[in-house]
Amino acid sequence: MAIAKQLKVLGLALVLCSLLFLAVTSYAQSEVLGEIQFVGATKVEKTSGVWVDGQYVGYLKELKGSKKVLLLPGEHEIAVRQSGYKDFTQKVLLEPGQKQILRVVMEKDPRVELPTVSSEVKIMVTPNRAAVFLDDGFVGHVHEFGGTGRAMLVSPGKHRIKIALPGYQTFETEINLLPNQKFKIETDLVKGSITQAGTLIKP
């Protein structure tokens, strides 16, 4: 009985030590890493894609909580993109443990012209936070183009569609659309290395 009690006490001590180690490690990381908090006023900004140092990290609205952007101290280049809008780019200098708030304002690109005749592409892909690229240009994330009343409007003809997210293999397909045609893409991204999506995710 005495041995069993000692083992129980020893086990409890090990658990407490592990929790203390994790707490100290977490605290140390929070003291070293800096954080960028993104703020957007409208739906345009909130659904825009965010790149940090050339790497896609997600769309603006989701980059908080468990998906908040933590970076090593130093200079970082931020790019925010949205179809039909000019890129928002800014360099930030992060200090250890510092939180910076970056207010994003997207400006319409006057060079973009909407097609007079369009086709419709509905995208049902998991995870629905993955980035969608049309002919190598970022157009949004999956959630914007799936479900009731949501789809991507594109000009008729041949198009390349790529869907990517860090940690998953890139999905690619080519479609040839007729005027007013409705087309559906439905698949699940396969988990893989971040390097497998790198060539697409980098702008």
Outline the secondary-structure elements:
Elements: H1 2-32, E1 34-40, H2 43-46, E2 49-52, E3 55-59, E4 69-71, E5 74-81, E6 88-94, E7 99-104, E8 119-126, E9 131-134, E10 137-141, E11 152-154, E12 157-164, E13 171-177, E14 182-188, H3 195-201
Parallel strand pairs: 1-7, 8-14
Antiparallel strand pairs: 1-4, 2-3, 2-5, 5-6, 8-11, 9-10, 9-12, 12-13
Give, in spatial order, the strands making up the sheet with the most strands.
Answer: 3-2-5-6
Q: What top-tier CATH class of the largest domain fits best?
A: Mainly Beta
Residue windows where pLDDT falls under 50 for at least 5 positions: 9-29
What's the overall geometry?
Answer: globular
Total DSSP E strands: 14
> Per CATH, which architecture of the largest domain?
Sandwich
The ordered H/E elements are HEHEEEEEEEEEEEEEH
Q: Helix coverage percent of residues?
A: 10-25%
The CATH superfamily of the largest domain is: Carboxypeptidase-like, regulatory domain
- SSE-based structural type: alpha+beta
Termini separation (Å)?
65 Å
Q: What integer value in Å does the Rg equal?
A: 22 Å
Number of domain units: 3
Any idea of the CATH topology of the largest domain? Immunoglobulin-like
Estimate what percentage of residues fall within beta strands. Answer: 35-45%
Task: Give a structural overview.
By secondary structure, this protein is α+β, with helices and mostly antiparallel strands. The protein folds into 3 domains: 1-31; 33-104, Carboxypeptidase-like, regulatory domain (Immunoglobulin-like); 119-201, Immunoglobulin-like. Helices cover 21% and strands 40% of the residues. It is built from 3 helices and 14 strands. It has helices spanning 2-32, 43-46, 195-201, and strands at 34-40, 49-52, 55-59, 69-71, 74-81, 88-94, 99-104, 119-126, 131-134, 137-141, 152-154, 157-164, 171-177, 182-188. A 4-stranded antiparallel sheet has the order 3-2-5-6, with no helix packed on it. The protein starts with a helix and ends with a helix.
